[in-house]
Amino acid sequence: MTNLQTLLDKPIAWKEWTTDGDLLSLLADLQANIFKGHGRDHTQNIFLSFEGMGTQQISDLLRDLSFVTTSALEQLREAAAFSAAKVSGGTVICVMLSVGGYGKLGIPSANVPGDLAFRAGMRTRGRLNPMTFTSIPGFNAPSINDPDKAKWEFGGAWDPGKDAPDAMVLVADDDAALVGNSAGALRRVFAKHGATVLGFDTGLAQRRNQPAGSPKGEGIEHFGYVDGVSQPLFLAEDLPHPLGAWDETFKPSQFIVPDPGNPTTFSCGSYFVYRKLEQNVKKFKHQEDQLANALGLAGPEQERAGALVVGRFEDGTPIALSQAPLAGVPTNDFDYTGSHGSKCPFRAHVRKTNPRTPGDMSERSRIMARRGITYGERKSDFSDEPEKNVGLLFMAYMSDINEQFEFTQSAWANNPNFPDADIGIDVVIGQPKNPPPAAHNAWEDAWSNPSRMATFDFQQSVTLMGGDYFFAPSISFLQSSGKFVAPAMVA
Prior knowledge:
Layout: H1 4-8, H2 21-29, E1 42-49, H3 55-66, H4 72-85, E2 92-97, H5 99-105, H6 116-120, H7 122-125, E3 131-132, E4 140-141, E5 167-173, H8 176-193, E6 196-204, E7 206-208, E8 218-220, E9 257-258, E10 268-279, H9 281-295, H10 304-310, H11 339-343, H12 349-352, H13 361-364, E11 369-370, E12 373-375, E13 391-398, H14 402-413, E14 442-445, E15 452-455, E16 462-472, H15 475-480
Antiparallel strand pairs: 1-5, 1-6, 2-5, 3-4, 7-8, 9-10, 10-13, 10-16, 11-13, 12-13, 14-15
């Protein structure tokens, strides 16, 4: 029998499930969307409260949900079928529990995911100051600086008057009507067991067709930039050959952990961070123009200002590699060594959140498996510039919330002194204001000859509207959680 840790410590060749019973056990019990993004363009994220439910009612609900929860094996086989014959894989359903959900389920503490950040919850962790990390004793990082929940989105799941959700159910499909049908059926299941729907967020992927790109179109976020380009790969079948300057190969154990419910030897799950991020498109695009003017960039060069901020041009071309868009397939084959590093600002978003230092295993350990999707309606030609009601539903899987998500947000994005003194914050997702020194607002266009400099306070255009920390348990845990409930606790 294969040891579980051995199985998770190298990229998994999932197609070997037909001859490897241990691998079959892992893939059939792990939820979809972790090993590989589901890729659907329409989603509903439904948030539930278990308030007023008995522990047996909650376990019965989870058992019923387990029968429609999509496994990793199902998703991977469907993806292979789509690649070979363009047969749609249909609807994907995933189930997450918050620490509050586990608490109301009433199971022993040893069977509850033990991550300290998960157990405290996002509402508490987002306001801590300073932020600390067990991996770097004595290091105090800036607060994540989440706005107080009183400033979150009114009226839906994140209304300041509502408690944190106990569970989230994700429904995804390429057909919006099928998402609606599945969500409607699920609501009847929720009502049957007494669960309350706090609200839901609707995801709608934005896409743009590019030369030599995906026939479906490249996924873009509302500021207009190709999104989700750089992802960790932990399936052997997905690895590029040969590997490029940036090694995209990661161990599954960086994103997948044993399920503490421990229903079977190979039962696993993953910590899941959910954040609803509203984007002020008008403000961001206006500031791009202002920065271009400050740097004296005009005509075709004007687009370079936004690339300095993001680290890539809108089509995904890394500014480290080119002074202009290359109009091809976005690449990950680069790092910031040598001349590449001099062309991309240290504070550029993609550099702040993935420094790509060759051989630095501490940096690599912070990488998350991002599975976000945009929300909100836009004009078909994206000519509008909304100031609210559009944004990103940030979703990411990881093995350690504090050392991955919180470290990336606090010690990197929010830290004006990373990776060196007086660099400034990541102005795309950083949440504090830049400190007063002009150095924190200095921008250099090193592609110009001679290099051009400007001082410009590029202010945040992204606002947190709500979110929480969850755990995606194994499917067998969803089926068997009732066995952990002591008889005296059953309602």
